[in-house]
C-alpha cells in the first residue's frame, strides 16, 4: 500500500512542517502541492538549490515523493506554460507523476475540444520530461466522469497520459465510483482519496473530508482498487484547511490514516482469501 498525503492539507504551513507531521501520522509518501493561491510547496520557478532542499527534506524523513498536484486552468496559455515548468521540476526531483485537471466546462463541446488539445500538449511535454501526466477527472470541468474520461483516452493516445481517479468527483456527478474504476482500470495511474457528502455538489468542510466521516463508499472503492491490482499511490487530498491550527490539521491526517489503513488491509486480506 502506497498511502500518502497531498501537502495542500498543510497549505497554511511550510513544507518542513508538512513533511514532519505527514511522517508522524504514519504515511509513506507525499504529494507536493503546486497550486497558486492554495499551497505552493513546489514552485514552477524553484531553483536547483530549492529542489535539492526539498529532496533532502523528504528523504531525511524517510518519505517518498509520489506526485505533484499542479491544479490550474490549463486553457490559459501562461498556466499551460507554468505546468510545463512544473513538469521539468518534478522530473529533476525524481517525481514520476504530475496531476492536473482538464479545466473547461462540462458538456460544452467547444470547451471540451479545447481541453483535449491542451491535454495533448501537456502529455507531450510530460513525455519529453520523462514523467507521466495524470489527468484528474474533476466535477464541473470538461473531463469529469467516466464517459468523458474514456473519450479522452481514446482521442489522446500518448503513453505519458493516464488518469487520476477521485471518487468524490465522479460520485457527485452521478457515476457509481466502483463501476467507474472498473471501466477506467486500464488508465488509472494515480488516485486521490477523501470523504465528503457525495450526494451534495459542494465538497464538505475539512472535518467531513476525513476518511470515514462522510458518505463516499470508501470501503467499496478501496476493495475495487485492490481487486483490479492497482499498485500506484493513493493520496489523501483534503482542501480548505489552510487556516486551521496545526493540531487540527494533524488530527485530520492521522484519523484518515487509521481508517484508510484498515480498509486497505481488509481489502488485501479479502483478495488473498478469494485467491486461496
From TrEMBL:
Keyword set includes Isomerase: yes
GO molecular function: isomerase activity
InterPro entries for this protein: IolE/XylAMocC-like, Xyl_isomerase-like_sf, Xyl_isomerase-like_TIM-brl
Annotated Gene3D superfamilies: Divalent-metal-dependent TIM barrel enzymes (3.20.20.150)
UniProt keywords, alphabetically: Isomerase
Top-rank lineage group of the source organism: Bacteria
Domain Xylose isomerase-like TIM barrel: 21-245
Range of residues in the leader sequence: none
SUPFAM superfamilies given in the database record: Xylose isomerase-like (SSF51658)
PANTHER family associated with the record: HYDROXYPYRUVATE ISOMERASE (PTHR12110)
Name of the molecule in the record: Sugar phosphate isomerase/epimerase family protein
Organism: Ectobacillus funiculus
Amino acid at each position: 500500500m502506497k498511502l500518502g498525503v497531498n501537502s495542500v492539507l498543510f497549505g497554511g504551513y511550510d513544507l518542513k512542517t508538512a513533511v514532519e507531521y505527514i511522517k508522524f501520522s504514519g504515511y509513506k509518501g507525499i504529494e507536493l502541492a503546486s497550486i497558486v493561491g492554495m499551497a505552493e510547496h513546489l514552485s514552477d520557478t524553484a531553483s536547483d538549490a530549492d529542489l535539492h532542499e526539498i529532496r533532502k527534506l523528504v528523504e531525511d524523513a524517510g518519505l517518498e515523493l509520489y506526485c505533484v498536484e499542479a491544479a490550474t486552468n490549463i486553457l490559459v496559455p501562461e498556466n499551460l506554460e507554468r505546468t510545463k515548468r512544473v513538469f521539468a521540476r518534478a522530473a529533476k526531483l525524481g517525481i514520476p507523476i504530475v496531476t492536473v485537471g482538464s479545466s473547461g466546462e462540462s458538456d460544452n463541446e467547444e470547451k471540451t475540444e479545447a481541453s483535449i488539445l491542451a491535454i495533448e500538449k501537456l502529455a507531450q511535454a510530460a513525455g519529453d520530461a520523462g514523467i507521466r501526466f495524470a489527468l484528474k477527472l474533476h466535477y464541473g470541468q470538461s473531463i469529469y466522469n467516466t464517459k468523458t474520461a474514456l473519450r479522452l483516452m481514446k482521442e489522446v493516445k500518448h503513453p505519458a497520459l493516464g488518469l487520476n481517479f477521485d471518487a468524490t468527483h465522479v460520485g457527485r456527478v452521478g457515476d457509481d465510483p466502483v463501476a467507474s474504476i472498473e471501466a477506467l482500470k486500464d488508465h488509472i495511474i494515480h488516485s486521490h482519496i477523501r470523504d465528503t457528502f457525495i450526494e451534495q455538489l459542494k465538497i464538505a468542510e475539512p472535518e467531513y473530508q476525513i476518511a470515514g466521516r462522510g458518505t463516499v463508499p470508501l470501503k467499496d472503492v478501496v476493495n475495487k482498487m485492490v481487486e483490479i491490482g492497482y499498485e500506484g499511490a493513493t493520496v489523501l487530498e483534503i482542501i480548505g484547511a489552510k487556516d486551521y491550527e496545526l493540531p487540527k490539521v494533524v488530527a485530520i491526517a492521522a484519523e484518515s490514516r487509521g481508517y484508510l489503513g484498515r480498509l486497505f488491509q481488509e481489502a488485501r486480506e479479502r483478495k488473498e482469501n478469494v485467491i486461496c
